[in-house]
Amino acid sequence: MGGLAMFLAVAEERSFTRAAAKLGVSPSALSHAIRRLEQRMDVRLLTRTTRSVAPTEAGERLMETVAPAFDEIDARIAALTELRSRPAGTVRITTSEHAARTLLWPAIDRIVADYPDIKVELNVQSGLTDIVAERFDAGVRLGERLEQDMVAVRIGPRLRMATVGSPAYLAKCGAPKSPDDLTRHACINLRMVNGSIYQWEYGRGGRELKVKVDGPVVLNDVDLIVAAASAGHGLAHLVDDRVAPLLAKGALVRVLDDWCEPFDGYYLYYPSRRQPSAAFSLILEALRYRD
Question: Domain count of the chain?
């Protein structure tokens, strides 16, 4: 196995032990290979302490150079599975919880049952991820957040937000007539993964608004926000399919309906230079949205 591949494994894992287990070699052999590479290049690539390993500036530059090449090699090798009778291989996708639950999992549930040689890893997180740096095959984002140098495939319908409150809360405090009225209401805030508070977004007739709201509760879990709104602690602002059953039962009531216009839904995106494997192409077609 080449020294560059070994270096990349250590740099990504930030550990000789984990990288050795991943590569199937001993930590000692791995350490010797990295030293030989550093001697050959006459530059230190890794900073080693008793507790951690991290790339130096030269190591970071080397990662930026060789990681895309190794990704391309992996993709082309994976593409050879098209010669097999059944698609095979691992597909890694980073996605939000909402997209994973509503769109990805229903399709993947069927695929892994029908194609036992395919392995799918879903990495569910709220923040935006650099799929090239993190070596994911694809990511899922809302259409408005897509990067320009990616191939993007629509995988879901347009979405719509819903501002809701319980009948008891609305009977006590009244319903807001416009987004500006929200500053006089108790609102249940969402703490984003980056630590910021989500600003409620509205639009009507080409006019867009972002409103900073306040209230007695700040949560970072959507299910808890739904529970808090249902219990009458204030208004909530969520994707409408999260509250549709409660709206149908009358446990929650929609307000500001005319300010909640549809917006671009989810897209699966991946680097344009990457040659999709048979397994990835199968998943892509299963997810592709058809009106």
Answer: 3
Question: Are β-strands 53-55 and 253-255 bridged in parallel, bridged antiparallel, or unpaired?
Answer: unpaired
Give me 60's structure tokens. Answer: 């970071």
Query: What residues contact residue 92 under an 8 Å CB cut-off, 6+ apart?
Result: 120, 121, 123, 135, 136, 137, 138
Mean pLDDT (the chain) is 88
185 and 252, same domain (yes or no): yes
| Lookup: tokens for 59 | 């190591």
Tokens read off for 245 = 């059953």
Convert the pLDDT of each residue in 193-239 to its tens digit.
778 899 999 999 888 999 999 999 999 999 999 999 999 999 999 99
Indicate if 109 and 128 belong to the same structural domain. yes
End-to-end Cα, the chain, rounded Å: 48
Return the CA Rg of the chain: 24
Residues 134 and 113 in one domain: yes
- Region 76-81: mean pLDDT is 63
Other C-beta atoms closer than 10 Å to the C-beta of 244 total 12
| Per-residue pLDDT at 266 | 94
Alpha carbon distance 18, 24 (integer Å): 10
CB atoms inside a 10 Å sphere around CB 143 = 16
Full domain range(s) for residue 40: 3-66
Whole-structure pTM value: 0.68
- For 120-154, the pLDDT digits (tens) are 999 988 767 778 778 889 999 888 667 667 889 99
DSSP 8-state code for residue 266: E
Same domain, 148 and 170: no
- Write down how long the chain is: 291
Query: What is the predicted pLDDT for the residue at 72?
Result: 75
